[in-house]
Amino acid sequence: MTNKPKFSIVTCTWNSAATLPDTLASVQRQTCQDFEHIFVDGGSTDGTLDLIAAYPGRKRVLRDVGGGVSRAMNQGIEAATGDYIAHLHSDDYYASDDVLEVVAERFASEGVDWVFGNVQVLKDGRLVPPYEMVPFSFSSFAAGRAWVPHPAVFIRRSALSRVGMFDEKLVYAMDIDLWLRLGKVARPATVDRPLAVFRDHAGSISSANRIKARREEFAVRRRYMKEAPLAFGIYCLRYMKRMRNLQAETTQ
Fold first, then answer.
1. Fewest Cβ atoms closer than 10 Å to its Cβ: which of 3, 91, 104, 214?
2. pLDDT digits (tens, 9 = 90+) for 142-161
3. Are 183 and 221 in contact (CB under 8 A)?
4. Is 244 exposed, middle or buried (0-12, 13-18, 19+ CB in 10 A)?
5. Where are the beta strands (DSSP E) in 133-185?
6. Which helix (H) or strand (E) holds 248?
């Protein structure tokens, strides 16, 4: 395939041999095969790179990329040539075989700059029923009512040229920062069904240090409080309640 692909799927890896096969299989099964797969590896020493080497299809491998997850995701974006970019980490996989087909149809029919759907969480070997999707608006997201699940997000590459990429100084809330920047200028289309499965385990960044993650999220949302002051005030109330609960858990 020499023409530009429709999708660029970016998968960040680091010693991911235990979970990567599910990621790869879910992409290979897609009914829409108009994609390139970009792997950004942080220096794996297990069988991760062997799995990628055996993976068929249009791919590119960026090796020994350091500097954190945000930088790895940005490296993938910079290497992408497709119209639409998705980040599907090596812990995650697509929930069904028609995900790319459904997303491509929404881009075509609604002419939007980004599309996202729901996710299911895989915890302790069990799929947890997905949360209800709240209609997205900038204010509802700024208030913490609406949420945007990273593995189920697809962004037009030209939109990232306008709003920028992930803030590489952030460790936990880089995706929230990008959704706020994007949500200010572009209405998304949503798909009210799970598009991806996210593994929640002890090694997940979002699970490993929830108090630090919440604090960084607060600092990120504070950047945008002038655009939605009432929404930020509502978020502050939610933040204080959640922090009290987290701190209570850590003292038990």
1. 3
2. 998 999 999 999 999 999 99
3. no
4. exposed
5. 153-156
6. helix 229-251
